[in-house]
Amino acid sequence: MKNLILLLCLSMQIFSCSQTTERQDKDEIISIMKTQEIAWSNHDLEGFMQGYWKNDSLKFYGSSGLTYGWDKTLANYKKGYPTKDHSGTLTIKIKDISKINNESYFVMGEYYLKRNIGDANGVFMIIFKKINGEWKIIADTSC
Prior knowledge:
Elements: H1 2-18, H2 22-41, H3 45-48, E1 59-62, E2 65-68, H4 70-80, H5 84-87, E3 89-101, E4 104-114, E5 120-131, E6 134-142
């Protein structure tokens, strides 16, 4: 009986260590977005894209319509923001992070680009999914 209780306690401890809390998930997502904010502000578009799922199934929906794929999304960013004057300094204001299920969240917020060529601001809704143990953006709607 003593061994059974010990085994049960050990199993519960292992299970609880493998699970993350919602707060931990949200903190990881916020950290990714802070890293993206820094990369964008340094005109490091490839670094900014590290928060996205590097897959042809990535979806980005913006003013130009729907784009599929990581490479195409990066190409569009490079075309639309060819210089530091175009990309400017990014500030993200997260308004809500809501759990969809254990492996995904949606994030809604606002972005602000302070630029020499004129500021650009808008709103976004992105979906993060845990893929191979990492949170990645699998869908982005920004306008």
